[in-house]
Specification:
mainly alpha, 3 domains, 64% helix, globular
Length: 204
């Protein structure tokens, strides 16, 4: 069990990243173009000099860029805000594009992306997702998320969205169960996961 000091440092780091994400939206709108070019977060942080300028660690800078791009759901005494990119399909395409970029790099190294095993393909996909700021869903988290989306306790019981999942509520539960309460998942990532699951079902 983490100590109080460790927990306090974690809360402080999350709040700092969230606040800095909003600041980056104002100071560095160019992060959108860099992200769309599949530039890794660590490279963006270095090119913009975020660590030195804001006096933060590289990890906080990377998390802040992610919040600036994807938005922040709220928490750690920081209000929620929308990301610079709100289209979940575009965010998914960016991850796919980076994965292809990584595959082409392997091909140039004569490792051959097409010749990779299924497990090697998976590793490349995970590397691509992490490079653009995604914390990859584990199999158990995927199963839990899809189950929660069908759980009446996490669905609307009235109004125009009756029967549909409350994506923000599902995200909060995932953060509680899998990420020690940290704001890793949000309604956009849960919605993307649901869409990917539906596409996989249609292709089988």
């Amino acid at each position: 069990m983490p100590s109080r000091s460790t927990t306090a440092r974690t809360f402080s780091a999350m709040a700092m990243s969230a606040n800095l994400g909003r600041q980056i939206q104002s100071d560095h709108a160019e992060v959108v173009a860099m992200y769309r070019r599949f530039t890794p977060l660590s490279t963006i942080a270095r090119r913009l000099g975020l660590v030195k300028h804001y006096g933060v660690s590289e990890r906080i800078a990377r998390n802040a860029i992610q919040y600036a791009i994807r938005g922040y759901p709220g928490g750690w005494r920081v209000a929620s805000y929308e990301g610079l990119i709100t289209d979940v399909d575009e965010l998914a395409r960016i991850v796919t594009g980076y994965r292809k970029k990584t595959g082409n790099k392997l091909k140039r190294q004569k490792k051959g992306f097409c010749g990779l095993s299924k497990e090697e393909h998976r590793k490349v996909a995970i590397a691509g997702a992490r490079a653009v700021g995604w914390i990859v869903f584990t199999r158990s988290e995927v199963q839990c998320a899809l189950k929660l989306c069908g759980d009446p306790r996490f669905c609307y019981t009235s109004g125009p969205h009756i029967g549909k999942p409350k994506l923000g509520l599902v995200a909060q539960e995932l953060n509680k169960r899998f990420h020690k309460g940290q704001s890793v998942r949000n309604r956009y990532s849960v919605n993307f996961l649901r869409g990917r699951s539906k596409r996989q079902q249609l292709s089988t």
